[in-house]
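Hi R.,

Here's the chain you asked about this morning:
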Amino acid sequence: MEYRQLGKTGIYVSRLCFGSLTIGPAQSNLSIDDGAEVILKAFDCGVNFIDTAKLYKTYGYIKRALEISKKQNIVISSRSYDYTYDGMKKSLDEALHALSAKSIDIFGLHEQEDVYTLKGHHDAIRCLMDAKKEGKIKAISISTHNIKAVEAASIMPEIDVIFPLLNYKGIGIGDGDAKGMENAIHKAKLNGKGIYTMKPIGGGNLIGEVEKSLKYVIDNQDIDSIAVGMQSENEVIANSMVFEGKEVPSDIKKTLRNTKRRLLIDWWCEGCGKCVERCSMGALKIVNGKSCVNPDLCRLCGYCSTVCPQFCIKII
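And here is the predicted structure, written out as tokens:
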């Protein structure tokens, strides 16, 4: 496994980052023990970097894995939607308590959109700067689906690490395409920011092109690490081998191809109906202002996700 420094932070991370959202209650909802086993398999494969967030409710999985492994070099990145000083302080303290940790490597602002949302989080950033001085965190981050937020954060001295969305089809980018995000990332990298990206498989919508999708971001030298959501040990093994440039064994490929998947509509769906119009199978309809899927009709083609303006549709 390759390791790189995140920008100028002094934090060295594996090129493959374990995205913990997938094992948690919002998606696969594994038990704490089962989720911890998936994380432990990632450790065995050389992964030393875990992405989480207050929203994901996955601190328990990470704590259990750390207790079992006794590893000391694991890098954790988390974040919160809080915009006030006190709110951010509370979220950071909650994370430290939940993880039984004295410090967290990276903590930041969740889902920023542009320079205006960043300005609106001034007090939260001030809290994180104080936490950095106190040794509670080592680096301040933002996560985003938007090119404009990457551009704005790239010139902010307070921000050390940027966590943007990128996949080869640009699925989920809120204000542009993959090329535009690549350009913004490149500029941020030139400005010394640590870069790790999310959604290389487009929230599961590129599941039929996993290796192609992963190689697209792996080959981008501006990216220090790539967070991939993984819910099974076989997924961890397969992804690790792709990152190491190795051929994934045919039996693991077959198992993953035969894994039962489902379409997930996230809670923030606004019921715009664009996915319903796009679905040629009639598998989607609006119920009580939200899109709902009929699994008997859905063929998991992922076409609906390409028209969703809120990136609500995932295949897990």
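One quick note: The mean pLDDT is 96.

Cheers,
M.
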